[in-house]
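Notes on consecutive records. When two proteins share a document, each keeps its own sequence and its own token line. Never mix them. Below: protein one.
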Amino acid sequence: MRIGIVGAGELGGALAELWVSAGHQVAIGDPGGSSASKDLVERLGSSARSTTIEDAARFGEVILLAVPFGAPDSLPPALSVAGKIVIDAMNAISETGENMPLDGRASSDIVAERFPDARIVKAFNAILADTIRSEGRLSVPADRRFVVFIAGDDGRSKARVSTLIEEIGFTPIDTGSLARGGRLQEPGSKLFNRPMLPADARHALQLFG
């Protein structure tokens, strides 16, 4: 599969490495214009390329958004992701670490408005990049892997993202629709940044969902 990654930070870099190891091709668009994406591509070899944000989005069958939520200029044009799966891994957190005011709306709803013709799946935002990089457990059964929560309104899109999660050694757990499930994954929730096994995650959803 071709995956476009927007953002060459810790999360984007970790997922790029793991997805290349799983046999995918990645294009990394670095909105900061730094050398981070080029250095990463050199390590990953021919299955990775460094490119512009828009070209990364056009390259991918699936697009990962791993840039600051409050930097809309770092996002690709809406037309470049039309008809595609867009993984929203962003959190509405300010540079000082505080939750940004969204007037009671879920951040994923705002992302969906920015990309009205894409199929948005919320994932990878509630787990640290270090956990993604170090805690994948391909050699153990699904019930003994750490969880990556997902939310969305399109079942096929969630199934495809679930496969990408499983291929790097984690277990996807569905939190529901984009609006409701996305809110359950936001900073400050009982699910955010709490590494869990599937049984614990399902129990948490029963209690707090």
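Protein two starts on the next line and is unrelated to protein one.
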Amino acid sequence: MRRRLRYSSFLLAFCFLSLQLVTAADTPKEKAWSVLYAGLSDSSYEKRTTAMQVLGLLPGDPKAEEAALKGLGDQRQEVRAAAAKALGDMKAKNATPKLMDMYNDKDPGVIMAAGKSLINLGDNRGYNVYYAILTGERKSGTSLMDEQKKMLNDPKKMAQFGFEQGIGFIPFAGLGYGAFKMVTKDNTSPVLAAAALTLARDPDPKSGQALADTAANNKSWIVRAAALNAMALRGETSLLPAAETQLDDPKDEVQYSAAAAVIRLTDLKENPAPVHRTPAKPAPKKK
């Protein structure tokens, strides 16, 4: 009963924030937050999970960090794991105590996500998770909870965890397990999604335009979402109009990626990073 009340309070908080944004959505950035808050408060846990994942594209954003911290209290383990991962991706060092609390979660996927995020934040206590997975007990010598042991002995669950936690090795893993189930039947989308994410670091402006075209025109929602994720990571503010047009994509998952791209690129446009110039070396003195 207490857990159900906590979950209801969690959804009401997101609904209130979403309503605030909807009534004031005068700019593309405000509309983007409306889209994200709608996803974060959706009754579908899969939509909440996807919306939570893209918060990791917004490092240094107080709203994103607050939303992810609230996500740690979601009723669904998939959302809690996505929230933990997002906090690591956005380098939210203030979240360290909350991530440590997630070690008491009953779901190993959540614990693994929290551990990985702690490692990303430079906290070596994150390695304790992998020690427990390997040995079946904590470093303190205490045994894992029965629920945790049961989950770790489920091959299908472990395969899912491996996919969801393998973002560094599987380029499109950040799009969620729903995408994984789809791409197992589609041999083209994974390759295109991987290519799109790789182009996030390509300095050639042609790649930026290619990502914008892909986000607008590709038939696969996975590829469109990957292109928008890459646009956010790329940080090229000239791509902002292209991201804004995808806020109305028919697929919710693509809308969430577009929203994250709009917020990040708007912030970069409004607060450009200072240019650090290397001082010129003085000319050698003539002898």
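For the record: Confidence is low (pLDDT under 50) at residues 166-173.
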